From TrEMBL:
Keyword Transmembrane helix applies: yes
The protein's name: 4-coumarate--CoA ligase
Source species: Paspalum notatum var. saurae
EC numbers on record: 6.2.1.12
InterPro entries for this protein: AMP-bd_C_sf (IPR045851), AMP-binding_CS (IPR020845), AMP-dep_synth/lig_dom (IPR000873), ANL_N_sf (IPR042099)
Reactions catalysed according to its record: (E)-4-coumarate + ATP + H(+) = (E)-4-coumaroyl-AMP + diphosphate; (E)-4-coumaroyl-AMP + CoA = (E)-4-coumaroyl-CoA + AMP + H(+); a long-chain fatty acid + ATP + CoA = a long-chain fatty acyl-CoA + AMP + diphosphate; (E)-4-coumarate + ATP + CoA = (E)-4-coumaroyl-CoA + AMP + diphosphate
GO cellular component terms attached to this protein's record: endoplasmic reticulum; membrane
UniProt keyword annotations, A-Z: Membrane, Transmembrane, Transmembrane helix
Pfam families reported for this sequence: AMP-binding
Amino acid sequence: MGEAADSDPYASILKRISTSDVPLLKEYGLSGVAVALLLAVAIPVLLSSLFGKKMKKRAVVADVGGDAGLTMRNSRFSDLVQVPWEGATTMAALFEMASKKYSRHKCLGTRKLINREFIESSDGRKFEKLHLGEYEWDTYAEAFYRACNFASGLIKMGHRLDSHAAIFSDTRAEWIIAAQGCFRQNLTVVTIYASLGEDALVHSLNETQVSTLICDSKQLKKLPAISSKLQSLRHIVYIEDEPVEAETLNQMKHWTTLSFTEVEEMGKTSHVEARLPSSSDTAVIMYTSGSTGLPKGVMIAHGNMVATTAAVMTIIPKLGIGDVYLAYLPLAHVFELAAETVMLASGSAIGYGSALTMTDTSNKIKKGTQGDVSVLKPTLMISVPAILDRIRDAVFKKVGEKGGLTKKLFDFAYNRNLAAIEGSWFGSWAPERMIWDNIIFKPIRAILGGRVRFVLCGGAPLSSDTQRFMNICLGVPVGQGYGLTETCAGAAFSEWDDTSVGRVGPPLPCCYVKLVSWEEGGYTTSDSPMPRGEVVVGGYSITQGYFNNEAKTNEVYKVDKRGIRWFYTGDIGQFHSDGCLEIIDRKKDIVKLQHGEYVSLGKVESALTTSSYVDNIMVYADPFHNYCVALVVPAHQALEKWAQSSGINYKDLEELCQNDQAIKEVQQSLSKAAKAARLEKFEVPAKILLLREPWTPESGLVTAALKLKREQIKTKFKDDLNKLYH
């Protein structure tokens, strides 16, 4: 599960998660240590000799015809999965049926706000601190009742049935209730990131002709400043999560403005019959925070979302009413929306939190009170790699600071468990692992509440080291997923018993995954030892295209002769012998960094070439890092002129290119060019290498038209690029 080709909601969340969220490890008793060491020596040899790893076939070749390529499907199903159960063909039907089936079980939970206070720092800044209590729950029956009331209330307040409603809010219970209410009246929901900039917000609302906007109080305050630009907006529904000033409401008198509660009450006293959708109707137009201009709206049908839900439900083991899910990632992103839909279909409890209140030491949690995970004690979570990386780095830092016996014992236990996972006896029956888990890793598990049994990671590549950290220190499988908004998050998903790293698993049961040769880039399905090519996804999870953008839709969506709809992702993948997919490259020059931000290499290069020091430049982004780097062929005359005026002595141009002051001067010039072009911080190369030799068609590094041959440059300077990241 993952993102559209131009999105990112997670960098802002990552900034809110502090390394102080990780508690100090406990000192360990020597008696426990002695027992652990004794068993550590005796048991592993016997277990390793008794059990051997077996390669399980997870995907098989699918004969679906269509364009040339290697197509795989999940091996556990002969046909694609379309619905979780009979009759659940739409989001509205799925929620209604689940609400009847699990009517008395916990559904949506929100923590009670006990008090809110502001603390002033020494520099005069004020910080909000929250004292939050226990979770207060709506049962499935109550949540469904609220959604029905909200649906009726929307119509009664004047929302037209032929227009769109938008949700512009942080993740919370009201988000889901509002969305389900819209689905019951077959209203298409436009989703917008709460962090979206003003221009993108106006564009999204105007392009989709939104007449009703549902927002939280924080987003409400943004509306008066852009009200004159909003062409179709008529109604505002605001969630009362914080007090709303009368002045703010007075500035919006030209709109019908009601609180969320008022709309629910209106619907409760004046019921409107449901107008249920079909599976082909558009449920959501999902806008992404575009990296190359204004965002695109992906049209997701009810059938797309239901198919992804049905498929994921077959992957997570023993999913059901005993599970508790922590919801904190943006619901305006397909990753979180799909995950919460899976929970609703399974009867699991969804407890809402935030990155600012997640742990006992999170920024907004009042000292001495508990964070979300401590109160909720979730069994299931999803995350993006950067958040898991932050947890891993903080734990290792704390262990290093502790030193002595604690560090030695931690390192020994970590390495023993690593050997167990990568050896032959990872599983529930592994006595040594159980000992280390209880003695060493238990306090680390408390970071996430102590009960997490499965973590799904998506949105960007997860490093092997971090995946192993989660396996060892949390003792849980990490399901790495791959997908895009255009595939409704559904493409590939690693299964719970697959302990390999670096892969994203076999195709989800709702879709096919095909590799199509990309000769220009040197990736073909005939490659050895593994077939490689552009990843193309087809099946029930493939969305309808881009709203009001037929040209772009036709460019990347194709329907074959058998009626199967395919999406060309632009990603390069390879199939392992067991049918699992690994993403190894990106066809286009857009790369997603570790935190989820997209860097359009061509756009950045175009901006940076305005520097007087640049003759040619190639920006490179490694998805396992949160910054990009660049190879720069300097304009010789400009650089030498600067060196002379600065009194820099050098033997030749090569020596000048290696001079630290020269590198700093060029980098500062690039930063100025980037600022002038309004590039984001993550788009500005953090490190550069100056190269003496120019890139010419004769060198094979540029075309006759002097366009970069990116793959050839990457190959030639592979070692140099690696050094820039180390």
